[in-house]
Amino acid sequence: MPMPEPHGDRHPLLAAQEGIWTGQQLDPHSPAYNTAEYVHIHGAVDPTVFEKALRHTITEVEALNVRFTTDQDGRPWQVQAPGVDWNPHVADLTDAPDPHGAALAWMAQDLARPVDLEHEPVFGHALLRTAPDEFLWYHRVHHIALDGFGLSLVARRVAQVYTALVEDAPLGESGFGTLESVRREEAAYRASDRFAKDRAYWTERFADRPAVASLTTEQALPDRTFLRRVVDLDPGETERLRAVAQELSVTWSDLMLAVTAAYIHRVGGAPEVVLSLPAMGRLGSVSLRVPCMVRNILPLRVAVNEQDSLRDLATRVAAELRSGLPHQRYRYEELRRDLKLVGGKRRLSGPGVNIMPFEYDLRFAGHRSTVHNVSAGPVDDLAVNVYDRAEGAGLRIAVDANPHLYDETDLAFHQRELLALLREAIDAPDHVIGRRPVTVLDGGPLPQPARPVLNLIAAHAARRGSATAVEHDGRTITYAELFGSARGLARRLAARGIGQGALVGIALPRGIDAVTAILGVLLSGAGYCPLDPDAPESRRQTLLDSARPALVITSDAHAARFAGQSVLRLDASDEGAQARTDPSAAADGLAYVLYTSGSTGRPKGVEISHGSLATFVAGATQRYGLRREDRVLQFAPLHFDASVEEIFLTLCTGATLVVRGDDMTESVPRFLRAVDRLRISVLDLPTAYWHEMAYTLSTGAAPLPDGVRTVIIGGEAALPERVNRWRNTVGPSVQLFNSYGPTEATVVATVAALHEAVTDPGDVPIGLPLPGMRAAVVGGELHLIGDALARGYRGADAPDDARFAPLAQLPGSPRSFRTGDLVRLGADGQLRFLGRADDEFKISGHRVHPSEVEAALLALPHVREAAVVGQVLPDGTRRLAAHVVTDDPRPAAAGLREKLRAVLPSAMVPSSVRFTDRLPRTSTGKIDRNALGVVADEAAPAEPADGLEQAIIHIWSRILGVEHMAPEDDFFDLGAQSLQAIQVANRLGVELGREVRVAWLFEHPTAAGLARHLEHRPDPADTPPALPETVVADARLEDGIRPAGPPLSGAPRTILLTGATGFVGPHLLAELLRVTDAEIVCPVRAATPAEAADRIRQALARQEIPLPADHGRITAVPADLARPELGLAPSRFAELADTCDVIVHNAATVSIMRDYTSLRAANTEATRRLLRMAAPRSIPIHLVSTLSVAPPRTLSPEVAEAFFPPHPGLVSGYQQSKWASERLLEQAAERGFPVSVHRLGRVVGAPDTGQVNGRDFLWSVLASGIPAGILPLLFEAEVWTPADYVARAVVRLSLSAEPGTVYNHAPVAPIRLADLYDWVEEYGYPVKRIPLAQWRRELPRSADVAATTGAFFDSFTGDGTTEDDSEPELALGHVRADNVLRDLEGTGVSCPPADRALLFRYLDHCVRTGMLPPPPGRGA
Amino acid sequence: MPEPLTLDTFRADLAEFLHQQPDDVDLDENPLYAGLDSLRITTLAERWRSAGADVSFVELAERTSFAEWWQLLSERRAGAAHADA
Predict the structure, then answer these.
(1) How far apart are CA A1005 and CA A1009, in angstroms?
(2) Which of A251, A283, A284 lies nearest to residue B43, judging by beta carbons?
(3) Which of A565, A584, A603 is the last residue of a domain?
(4) What is the CA radius of gyration of chain B?
(5) What is the pLDDT of residues A438-479, one digit of tens each?
(6) Is residue A1366 part of a domain?
(7) Same domain for A1405 and A1335?
C-alpha cells in the first residue's frame, strides 16, 4: 500500500482537475460537480463491516484525502490531508412506503448540497437498506477528485475489501499507484515532442473554428442541476447493435456517435456536427491503477450530408476517431485557449456522447450487484451517456440536458426521436439517415373554391350596396359608394395607361381614401404597392427604384415627396379623362407588392398574385369565423401586410372596416374605450401591442369591451406569461387567434386558437396551417406549401429566390417556401415557434436582416466596418445593437443613429451603437456574431463607468502583460485563460471591496461590458433563493449530538469564552472574571499560547479595560474555530469537554459582504463543534447572537424573544450563518441542552471611554457621510446598547437563565435617527439628510469606507439594476425584550439610554482617533 | 466455439479494429497511437477471454505495444500456466 504523503503536503492540480476547479469557480455554490452512482447489492450486507471496508478503502485512496486551497493569487492547490473526518449515512428504509423511492430521494438531496472544497470531504457514502436483502450503496464524489474510471476503481476495491472482511480473508494490497506518479507522467508528457505533436494536430484540425451545431440555437452556462431521461435498450436490441457494429467493422460506440451526429443534423440542418467525447485518458498510463481525475474531452468533427447511411457515418466517425485518438492526451481546455474559444459564447464542441464501457460486475461477499449512475457532472448542453451494464443486461442510455436550454418536454422529444433514429438506423444500416425527416401538416381543403377578392366585394356592392363598408373618424362609406369611387379611380388610371401587369404605388395614410385607392388599382387590373408616406427619403427612393411603379397615387399633402414620379393626386378629382378598365385579373395576375427586410442588405419586394390573395382570404375567413355583422378595426399601416388581412377579410365578408384614428393608441385604456365606443367586434393587433393590452387588462386598469368577440394577434412570438394573463382575465369566451406567417405566404400561414383547451400553459402554439395550405417541417425548419405562396421577389434576387424551391422530399416535389423559422411539433399536433435558423431578427413586427442595417451603416461617411446583432434583454425586450469601427475622430452615436433614421424605418435603427477598434472575427475572417451577441450593454448608459472600467483594465493588463487595452477589447481574444480570469475576479473583488464572480468575466468579456454589469449588478437571476440549501442543510443538528449525563451543578470552575478579542468579548471576559471564580479559557487565533495571551491583552487595552487583577485566571489557547475540533489538538479538545462547566460562545466572523459559504465554517460549524464538545457532560452553552436574524418589519411587526423559522429576510451570509447557529441551539434546547441565546442590537462603546467600533456598519456610514456633508435616511430608529452593559447582562442572564430562553437585548427605547443626526449637526457638522439611493449616488467614490457600505447596500437590496429610489428594508418591527427586563429585575444591571451627551463622547473619540475630521470652526 | 487464439488470429483481430491488413499490423506500435480507445480494447479483451486467454482491460490498456499484448496473451492462453494477476 502506498503511504500517503506527509501532512500539509501541497501540490498544484493536475490539468484535468484545474479544468474542474475553474468550472466550479464560475458558480462556487453549485453542487453540479458532485458525481455519484449507487450500487444495488442483491443480498444482505453487514453495515458495520461495510463501514469498515469503506474506511479502509478511503485511507488507501490518496485523491480522497485532500483539501483544496487557494493562495493569494487565486491559484488552487491540493493539500494532502490524511485522516479526513467523515461518517457514512446508514439507514434502514424498509419501513418507508416506497423504500427505493425514499433512497433515491435521499440521494437527490445529498447530491444537491454543494461541497466546500476547502473544508469538507470531497466525497460521501450512504448504505441504504431498501428490503431485507437489498441494499443501495450510494457513493458521491466531487469530480475534482475522481473521474468515472476512478470511481470504478474505488468501488471495485470496496467490494474486494468488504468480501475479504466478511470471509475473514487477508485484505491484500489495493494495487493503487501514487498521485505523484500521475503528476510526474503529466509533467513528462507536457515536456515531450508528443505534446507538441498533439497540439499541432488539434490546432490544425480545428483551425477554421467550425460552427458548433446543437439542438438549440441558445447557449448558457451549466445550471446547478440537470434534467435526465433514462431508457434501457433491451438485450435483443443491444445484441443487434453489436452485430451491426461488427458487420460495419466499427464498435457500437461509433454507431451511437454516428446516430447522434445524424440526429443533430436532422434537427438543424447543419452540414457538420462537432460532438464532445469524454475520453478516459489512461491508455498506456500509470493512472490505470490510480483513482484520480484525468479524464479529457475530445472534440469530434462529423460531416453529415443528406445521402449518408449509418454505414457511411459510422465509417467516417471511426476514421475521425482513429486519427484523433492518438492525440487524446492533449487537454480540451488547452485547445480552447489555443483556438481562442474561451468565454462568451465561443464553443469548441456541442452535445456530448459519453460511452462508459467499464466492466462493473462487482460482487459483495458473493452477492450480485448492479451499478447505477446518479450524476455524471454538469451538463453544458445535452449529453448522451451510454452505460454498458452487467453481462447480458443491454445498454442504458441516459440523456442529460441543461435546464437553461431545454425543458422536460424538449428533452423527452429529443430522447424519443434519437432512440427512434437509432432503431431505424440499425434496422437498415444502408438506408439514408442523413436526410432530414419531413412532417407534413395539412390545413385541409378550402371550404369552397377561392373566389377573386374583387368578385366578392363587387357582389356585396351589388346585393347589399347600402351596407357600411368603411368608417373613419365619423365618415362612412357604403359598399355601393366604395365600389363606385374605386371604379371611377380605375377608369382614371386606365386613362393614364395603367392596366394588367402594371404596379401602382399608394402613398396614403390609413383611411377611406386608401381603401378606395387599393380597390381602384385592383379594378384597373394593376397591382398595388403601399409606400409609407412618412418613410425616410432615401428609403422611399430605394423602394421606388426596386418596385418601379408606373404611377404613385398620393394626396396633395404628400405629392411633393414623389417629384420625378408619375403621380396621381387622389384629391384632384377633376384631373384627366377616364377610360375603360380590364379588371378580369387572372389568378397569377399581380395583386400587390410588399417590401420586407432582405438578407442581401437591400429590402425585397414580395409579389402576391390574385390567386394567392384569394386563397388566403378564403382560408382565413373560415378559420376566424368572420361574419357580416362584424366591425373590424383597421389598425395596421398599409405597408404592413396585416393591413391586407384587415381590409380584404372584412370587405370580402361584407363586414365593416373601422379605421383607427392616430390618437387611439396613446394609452391602452384609451384604446379600449375607443374600441368600445366604435363597437369593434374584431381586433387584429400586432403581438407586441397585444402584450401591453393583456397586461393592462390583467391589472384591472381597464376592461375588454363587451362587443369584442375575436382578437387576432401576430407579428412576433407571443409571451406565455401574457397569454396566461389573458386567459385568467378574459377567459375562453373571446376568440384569441395566434397567427404566424411570412409575407411570402400571404400574411398568415398558420393559426392557433389560444382560447381553446390548453395543454401546456407554458407553451404558445402557432397552430395549424390555414385551409388550402400545408406546412412541412424539414428537420426543424418550417417550409410552406400551397396556393397562397408569393409569386417570388420583385426583380428576382437570386439568393433569396432560392427560398422558393420544390421540396424534393415530398411526392410531386411541390413548390415550397423555406421560412428560415425553426419549429417543433407539440404533443397536441400543433406547431411551436422556436427561433430563426439565420440571424434575421424580429423587432416590433418588422423582420430585420442585420445585413440590411449594416449596409446602411457602411454607407455613412467615416464608417469603416459595421456589425449588427439582435439582442434579447433579460426582461424579454428585443433590440438591435450595432458595433461600428470608424475613422478618427469618432462621430457621436446619436449622430449616427440620426443619419440612420434618414434611411431606415425606425424599428431598424439600432438602439445601441458601440464603437470599437476592430470587430471580433473568426479565424476564417467572418465576423464573430456570437461574440458580439454577448456584449450585452444594459440599456441606459447611466453614470460613466470610467473609474470602474479603468480598474478592470488595469488589473487585466497586469495579469495579461499587455500594455494597451481598450474598454471593448475581449480579454479572451487577448489570450486570457480561465485561471487568469479567476485571479482577476479575486483581485477585482479585493480592489472594489465587493463580490466579483468569475462567471461575470466570462459573460462580459470586455472591460466596458464588465463595468456596466458591475454598475447594474446584481441582476435578479443572481440573487440566491430565500435560503440556500447549504444553510438549511447546515442548520440541522445531527441526531448523535444529545446531552448525556445530568445537568452540571455548583459554581463553574472552568468557563470557555470564544471571541474574547472582539468588541464585546473583552467586556465579557472582564465581567466573567468579576462575577465568577472560574478559570476562563479563551480560544484565540494565534500560533502560540504566548501570542494568544498577547492578543487578549491587546484586545483589553484597545477597549481601555484595565487588566483585571486576577488575570491569572485567563488561559489563552491557540485555536481556530473554523477547523475541526476548533483547531485544537484532539487531547486539548477532549480535555475541555471534560473540564469545562459553561460555554459562552461569542465568536463570529462579522462581515456584511461575505457570502454564506465563506462564513459557515467559522460561524455555523463552530457552533456545531461546541455542541459536540458540550454533549457528553451536558455543558450549558450560551450563544451571543444578533437581532439581524429577525424578520424585517415588513414580515413581522414584532421581534419575539423566540427562535425564528426560516424567512426571506435572511439575505446576507452573516445573517444566514447566525440564524443557522441559533437553529442548532434551538434543536439542542429541544433535546434538553441547557442553552440560552442573546441577541444584540447595535453595540456601542462603553460610555466611560466613548469608544467607537470603527468596523461597525452605522459608524462606517457616519464616517463616510459626515465629511461629505450628507447622511442617508437609513431607518426610523434602533436600539443602542453599550458594550459594558451588554457584557454584564449577558453574563448575568447566562448564569441564571431558564434553559432554552431567548433574550433580545433591547431593554431601552430606541434612538431616533432624526435625533442622532440633529446631534451630529449640533456637534458642529453641517449635514444634509437625503434618501439612501441618492446618498449612494452622491457619495464620492473615493471614500473607501463608502465602497464597502455602498456595495453592501447593493447586495442588500438585491436589485442594483433599477434606478428607482427603493430603500433596502433594514428596519425591524418592535423588539420585545420582556425576558431581559424580567430576568434582570432587581439585579442592578440596567442599560443607560443613548443621548446627546453620549453621542458627543463618541464623536470626540472619532475626532481624537482621526476617524472624523474636527467639525469646521472647532479645533482638533 | 470461438477459434483458438494464435498469433494469426491476434493479428487479424487487431487488423479489423485498426482498419488494416493483418500483415500491415506493426506489433511494435503503441495501442494509444494506433488510435484504439477503451471500448475497442474492452471489446478485444472480451473476444480474447472467450478464446481462452484471461486478460483484463487494465492489463491490456497499461501495455504500450501490441507485442507486449501478445506476450501477455501467450502466457494466459488456456493451457498455459496461470500466473497470478
Answers:
(1) 7
(2) A251
(3) A584
(4) 12
(5) 889 999 999 888 999 999 999 999 999 999 999 999 899 999
(6) yes
(7) yes
How many other C-beta atoms can be found within 10 angstroms of the C-beta atom of residue A609? 24
Do A566 and A421 lie in one domain? The reply is: no
Interface residue of B62, B72, B84 to substitute, partner A, most A CBs within 10 Å: B62
* For residue A340, pLDDT beyond 70: yes
Looking at A19-28, A603-612, A974-983, which range is the least confident one? A974-983
Which residues lie closer than 8 Å to A667 by C-beta, 6 or more apart? none
Contacts of B75 (CB under 8 A, 6+ apart): B81, B83
Q: Which of A1077, A1287, A1054 is nearest to A1179 (CA)?
A: A1054
CATH of the domain at A468: 3.40.50.980
Give the residue on B whose Cα is nearest the Cα of A250. Answer: B17
Question: For residue B52, what is the domain's CATH number?
Answer: 1.10.1200.10
Q: How far apart (Å, rounded) are the C-alpha atoms in residues A1240 and A1242?
A: 7
CB distance B58–A288 less than 8 Å?
yes
Are A463 and A522 found together in one domain? Answer: yes
Instruction: Say what the pLDDT of residue A462 is.
Output: 94
A358 versus A159: which is more confidently predicted? A159
Number of domains in chain B: 1
A151 and A104 belong to one structural domain? yes
Give A1025-1082 pLDDT, tens digit per residue. 457 778 888 888 887 888 887 777 788 899 999 999 988 999 999 999 999 999 999 9
Q: State the residue range of the domain holding B66.
A: 27-80
Please check whether residue A188 touches B, CB under 8 A.
no
| Length in residues, chain B | 85
What's phi and psi for A1393, nearest 5 deg? -75, 155
Distances (CA, A) of A1135 to A458, A609, A1125, A1174: 106, 96, 12, 12
Same domain, A283 and A134: no
Read off the pLDDT of residues A804-835 as tens digits, 9 standing for 90 and up: 888 877 888 899 998 988 888 887 889 988 77
Between B16, B19, B61, which is nearest A283 by CB? B61
Give the mutation candidate from B29, B33, B37 for the A interface (greatest A CB count, under 10 A). B37
Q: Are A909 and A860 in contact (CB under 8 A)?
A: no
Check whether residue A990 and residue A882 sit in a common domain.
no
Structural domain boundaries enclosing A923: 851-933
| C-alpha distances out from residue A251 to A170, A303, B17, B43, Å | 40, 19, 9, 8
CATH number at residue A859: 3.30.300.30
CA-CA distance, A1124 to A249, in Å (whole number)?
57
Same domain, A240 and A143: no
The verdict on residue B59 lying in a domain is: yes
ipTM of the prediction? 0.90
Q: Which of A182, A217, A249 is the last residue of a domain?
A: A182
Partners of residue B56 in chain A, C-beta under 8 Å: 359
Say whether B64 and A319 touch across the interface (CB within 8 A). Answer: no
Q: What is the pTM of this model?
A: 0.54
Give the A window 884-943 contacts with B, CB below 8 Å. none
pLDDT greater than 60 at residue A800:
no
Query: Mean per-residue pLDDT for A1230-1243?
Result: 90
Check residue A514 and give its pLDDT.
Answer: 95
Q: Give, rounded to a whole angstrom, the gap between the first and last alpha carbons of chain B.
A: 26
**Is position B73 within any domain?**
yes
Instruction: Confirm if A287 and A407 have CB atoms less than 8 A apart.
Output: no
Number of domains into which chain A is organized: 6
pLDDT per position as a tens digit, A166-177: 999 999 999 999
Give residue-wise pLDDT tens across range A237-294: 999 999 999 899 898 999 999 999 999 998 877 889 999 999 988 999 999 999 999 9
Q: Does B35 touch chain A (CB under 8 A)?
A: yes
Query: Average pLDDT for residues A934-938, to the nearest whole number?
Result: 44
Whether A251 and A158 share a structural domain: no
A134 domain-assigned: yes
